[in-house]
Amino acid sequence: MTEQELIQVFKERGALLDGHFRLTSGLHSNRYIQCAQVLKYPDLSAELGKQLADHFRDLKVDTVVGPAVGGIIVAQEVGRGLGVKAIFSERVEGEMTLRRGFEISEGERVVVVEDVVTTGGSTKEVIELVKECGGVVVGVGSLVDRHSGELDFGVPFHPLLKLAIETYSPDDCPLCQKGLPVLKPGSRKS
User: Fold this and answer.
1) What are residue 137's DSSP bridge partners?
2) pTM higher than 0.85 for the full model?
3) CATH value of 3-177 in 3.20.20.450, 3.40.50.2020, 2.60.40.10, 3.40.50.720
4) Which of 139, 2, 41, 129 is nearest to 82 (CA)?
């Protein structure tokens, strides 16, 4: 799918929202991406996962890992597309960790995937976790990169869709200044 086709799919499925939102990062924005509205369709999940997997096909990947919750389905579908295992990390008392018997071995080649990258914070946490386990991160991917600048994960980063969506600190948010109510549609409470 082209970027324009992806945007259309996200709009049609109610995954690209307009309003006043507080993001997981604490920043505010006038647009919100809710990839779960697209990922709830298995055919679309599989197609997007295969498309993302194609970016990593030549990297001899052993494992795909994504942070819970948004990265679980993405990791599963990218893993399926590459024919490798897919696992997810979870936050325990604020720290990213592997649970449920998931392991990353010394030298294991890993791709980290997300649904949406805003600041890159969760992705960087997963990268550090993989390194602490002895794994080697060979790439990062996401369905959507909504970060307004360039992100450097130290490895190639491949988003399927890059959207320039403005974010504001809560103190300088023009939407707050207009008195518009703030919505918190994400999966984590803060």
Assistant:
1) 110
2) yes
3) 3.40.50.2020
4) 139
